[in-house]
Amino acid sequence: MFANFFQKLLNASLIGLGIILCYFLLNELFYILKEAFNPGDVEHDVLERVLVFFLYFGFISMIVKYFKEHYHFPLRYLIYIGITATVRFIIVNRQNVYENLILSIVILVLMLSYLMLTPKLFLNRVRDEG
């Protein structure tokens, strides 16, 4: 009984979060289009907004995937989010080279983690290419 209640609460929360994320996604799209037709000296800000737009899109896609997978969220999608967020931070953070190097190593670790989750897929690709 409690599990059913919490499942419904989780589903309602994710639907609410999805609606909020759709609002912010459209807000970012509006800003990007506004700056595209009114160019200024804010190219870096527009690039940052485009990356944020794709992060919102990714989170909304994950919520949809959660419902399509019958209330299950595959671990590989969390790894995708980690890689995407880290790449976004590297692009936006241009001042600290050593921090970007460490973040690049983080991406490598996340990619290796993904390969460990899908060993059959990885071994089939290696065998097909070799």
Automatic annotation (TrEMBL):
Keywords: Cell membrane, Membrane, Transmembrane, Transmembrane helix. Belongs to the PsiE family. The chain crosses the membrane at residues 9-26, 46-67, 74-91, 97-117. The lineage of its organism: Bacteria, Bacillati, Bacillota, Bacilli, Bacillales. It is a multi-pass membrane protein. It comes from Fodinisporobacter ferrooxydans. This is Protein PsiE. It is found in: Cell inner membrane. Signal peptide: none annotated. The keyword Electron transport does not apply.
